[in-house]
């Protein structure tokens, strides 16, 4: 059974780093065990993989992996848990963000290197509540994914391959309460999966925005996870500008005002948002729908 360890120069916090990769408490691809270990699945170019991620010391994160994709997953493990995240030039002077940084100096941004794996859930989350999107993700992964390899917890699944996403019938998306627009976007992206996985970090935004149905918000949510982009703000999010405004100014603001307010923090604007959330200093935390949509299952 292949394994590896990453030693950090400060407190290790895989739970904080991997939190954005989890799609709700019932995510069939991500499970936190009672002992604190994180079980996560992925689909690499070599095949599916199950990983068990745990801490063996204050500064050490370990990973055991099973399945055909184990070696490839372990090769990218250091990046996934944030060991390659560079915040050396991040020195915020805005008081609330500076305090958040003092509270959580060990926050690191992870990079999965898996574009479709980050893109499909982001498409599902377009214009709907997180709960509705996570239910759809859980239903589709359970039905069209595969059992996790190795000694995985019961119910852990590997997300569908690009080929599997392409073959999901339209009525199955409908049963998962995914409207035709999002369903078509997922299928179209899956059809271009090989090209998407070849995108470099420098070309990712332009490449992703060229896809019909993939806008700025979806691109930001994708590059945050696939490339660990520390500056990618989810502009257009139903709650984000309100959270930033209330947290830093004491009142809600719109996207334009948020961009102006966070401009001095380039290239770490997304890092600042994550720090607000992780430190507990974010006011008016995200909840509810981005935009109400009809219950398609009832139609």
Any chance you could write out the topology, listing elements then pairs?
Blueprint: E1 3-7, H1 14-18, E2 30-32, E3 38-44, E4 47-57, E5 60-66, H2 70-75, H3 77-80, H4 95-103, H5 115-124, H6 130-144, E6 146-147, E7 157-158, H7 162-167, H8 170-175, H9 180-191, H10 193-197, H11 201-209, H12 216-226, H13 240-248, H14 255-262, H15 269-279
Antiparallel strand pairs: 1-5, 2-3, 3-4, 4-5, 6-7
Oligomeric state as shown: single chain
Task: State the secondary-structure class.
Answer: alpha+beta
Mean pLDDT: 94
Rounded to the nearest angstrom, the distance between the terminal CA atoms is 48 Å
* Count of distinct structural domains: 1
Strand content: 5-15%
Q: Provide the spatial order of strands within the biggest beta sheet.
A: 1-5-4-3-2
Sheet with the most strands, sense and barrel status:
5 strands, antiparallel
Unreliable sequence segments = 287-292
Which CATH class?
A: Mainly Alpha
Give the name of the CATH superfamily: Hypothetical protein, domain 2
| Outline type | globular
Organism: [Mycobacterium] fortunisiensis
Protein name: DNA-3-methyladenine glycosylase II
Keywords: DNA damage, DNA repair
Catalytic activity: Hydrolysis of alkylated DNA, releasing 3-methyladenine, 3-methylguanine, 7-methylguanine and 7-methyladenine
